TrEMBL record:
<comment type="subunit">
    <text>Homodimer.</text>
</comment>
<keyword id="KW-0275">Fatty acid biosynthesis</keyword>
<keyword id="KW-0276">Fatty acid metabolism</keyword>
<dbReference type="GO" id="GO:0005737">
    <property type="term" value="C:cytoplasm"/>
</dbReference>
<dbReference type="Pfam" id="PF07977">
    <property type="entry name" value="FabA"/>
</dbReference>
<dbReference type="GO" id="GO:0016853">
    <property type="term" value="F:isomerase activity"/>
</dbReference>
<comment type="similarity">
    <text>Belongs to the thioester dehydratase family. FabA subfamily.</text>
</comment>
<keyword id="KW-0963">Cytoplasm</keyword>
<keyword id="KW-0413">Isomerase</keyword>
<dbReference type="GO" id="GO:0019171">
    <property type="term" value="F:(3R)-hydroxyacyl-[acyl-carrier-protein] dehydratase activity"/>
</dbReference>
<dbReference type="InterPro" id="IPR013114">
    <property type="entry name" value="FabA_FabZ"/>
</dbReference>
<protein>
    <recommendedName>
        <fullName>3-hydroxyacyl-[acyl-carrier-protein] dehydratase FabA</fullName>
        <ecNumber>4.2.1.59</ecNumber>
    </recommendedName>
</protein>
<comment type="pathway">
    <text>Lipid metabolism; fatty acid biosynthesis.</text>
</comment>
<dbReference type="GO" id="GO:0006633">
    <property type="term" value="P:fatty acid biosynthetic process"/>
</dbReference>
<keyword id="KW-0456">Lyase</keyword>
<dbReference type="InterPro" id="IPR010083">
    <property type="entry name" value="FabA"/>
</dbReference>
<keyword id="KW-0443">Lipid metabolism</keyword>
Length: 169
């Protein structure tokens, strides 16, 4: 297990986006505006509902976020796919945080439920990810997790069997 802290601020996340946190060729977050969180408040390899690891993170919502102007003019809503991408980003971050090598990529998701919307008057999204599997073998490095996104405490997105892998190629 690598020796990283259990929480990260925005500057730390930007270091990860530049490839400076886990090293070249390893898990990397996207840069803004595609970086879908402002802080990770807690992360583990053995916590969460299944004892296989978890991530808690937050994203501050402001009316000037880039997607509100284009999705949709006169009816601004954060695209649901961006919330899903935030969950994938954090799942991959957890694999890099464990010290596992390789670049992250999403493999898919088993089930997605969108039950609410993010409008410009919301203040904060909270991501909650619980790993159901974390696999590292000679041939495969992968995390499988369930996740939810809350907007100001209301569950608005739920996913099951989200998969992210790391590859050294």
């Amino acid at each position: 297990m690598a020796d990283y802290p259990s929480s990260f601020d925005r500057d730390d996340l930007l270091k990860c986006a530049r490839g400076e946190l886990f090293g070249p060729g390893n898990a990397q977050l996207p840069e803004p505006p595609m970086l879908m969180m402002d802080r990770i408040t807690d992360i583990s390899a053995d916590g969460g509902a299944h004892g296989k690891g978890h991530v808690l993170a937050e994203f501050d919502i402001t009316p000037d976020l880039w997607f509100f102007d284009c999705h949709f003019p006169g009816n601004p809503i954060m695209p649901g796919c961006l919330g899903l991408d935030g969950l994938w980003q954090l799942t991959g971050f957890n694999l890099g945080w464990r010290g596992w090598q390789g670049r992250g990529y999403a493999l898919g998701v088993g089930e997605v439920k969108l039950t609410g919307m993010v409008r410009p008057d919301r203040k904060m999204l909270t991501y909650k990810i619980d790993f159901t599997k974390a696999i590292q073998t000679r041939r495969l490095t992968m995390g499988v997790a369930d996740g939810i996104v809350e907007a100001d405490g209301e569950v608005i997105y739920q996913v099951k069997d989200m998969k992210v892998a790391l590859s050294e190629s």
